[in-house]
């Protein structure tokens, strides 16, 4: 939801380190922009909790052809979306979360960085929001030869669950079992001396010993 030009939005992909984004694997721009429409084709809006402005809601879609983005299996990844502003103080942009009474977290709660809030390291979203939650996104993966059989949403219709979308959607439930061994602290697929070094480094810098 934004009053800025939505094509200025960027998507970053990060490797997961325990429960936090760690290494950035790629950054992607120029998404396909789909304005969200409600009943009678009325544009869906989001009321800013900061200024009270009504902001248009968009579905932003990034498409990756074969070889553009290769993520090895057996581990989790983070997606980070943000909009590059132009310096105008009235600009606002928000990634919306899934509305509903069911559990608000499917995997790990969202994390954020913020210059205005002086948060320079990835931190849980419930530091600035009322309660932990994850955000609204959907991942569609198909075999390239099957692309002609993929049914996409009509222009102006949501392709994933967002605020205002009351239709039942089957959301990902996350990994059925840990993607890495409990002793694999740095998530490189091995339990070795490097994991011990990582634990010692976290302890000496005051990190969370449970990691």
Can you give a write-up of this model?
It is a single chain. By secondary structure, the chain is mainly beta. The chain has one helix and nine strands. It has one helix spanning about 195-205; strands spanning about 10-15, 20-30, 30-35, 45, 55, 60, 75-85, 110-115, 120-125. A three-stranded antiparallel β-sheet has the order 2-1-7, with no helix packed on it. A hairpin with a 4-residue loop joins β8 and β9. The radius of gyration is 19 Å and the shape is globular. Mean pLDDT is about 75; it is low at about 145-180 and about 205-210.
Query: Major sheet, described briefly?
Result: 3 strands, antiparallel
Instruction: Please report the distance between the alpha carbons of the first and last residues.
Output: 34 Å
Q: Give the overall form.
A: globular
* Content of β-strand: 15-25%
Radius of gyration: 19 Å
Describe how the helices and strands are arranged:
Blueprint: E1 9-17, E2 20-28, E3 32-35, E4 45-47, E5 54-56, E6 58-61, E7 77-83, E8 111-114, E9 119-124, H1 193-204
Quick tags:
211 residues, disordered C terminus, two-stranded antiparallel ribbon, 23% strand, 9 strands, mainly beta
What's this, in brief?
The protein has 211 residues and is mainly beta. It is built from 1 helix and 9 strands; from the N terminus they run E-E-E-E-E-E-E-E-E-H. 6% of the residues lie in helices and 23% in strands.
């Amino acid at each position: 939801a934004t009053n800025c030009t939505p094509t200025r939005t960027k998507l970053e992909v990060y490797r997961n380190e325990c429960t936090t984004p760690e290494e950035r694997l790629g950054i992607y721009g120029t998404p396909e922009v789909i304005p969200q429409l409600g009943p009678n084709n009325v544009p869906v809006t989001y009321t800013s909790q900061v200024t009270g402005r009504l902001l248009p809601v968009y579905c932003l879609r990034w498409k990756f052809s074969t070889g553009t983005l290769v993520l090895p299996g057996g581990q989790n990844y983070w997606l980070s979306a943000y909009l590059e502003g132009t310096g105008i103080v009235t600009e606002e942009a928000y990634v919306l979360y899934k509305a509903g009474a069911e559990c608000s977290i499917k995997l790990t709660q969202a994390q954020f960085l913020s210059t205005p809030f002086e948060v320079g390291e990835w931190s849980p979203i419930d530091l600035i929001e009322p309660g932990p939650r994850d955000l609204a996104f959907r991942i569609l993966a198909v075999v390239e030869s099957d692309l002609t059989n993929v049914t996409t949403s009509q222009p102006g219709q949501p392709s994933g669950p967002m605020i205002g979308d009351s239709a039942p959607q089957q959301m990902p439930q996350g990994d059925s079992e840990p993607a890495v061994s409990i002793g694999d602290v740095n998530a490189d697929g091995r339990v070795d001396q490097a994991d011990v070094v990582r634990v010692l480094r976290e302890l000496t810098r005051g990190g969370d010993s449970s990691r």
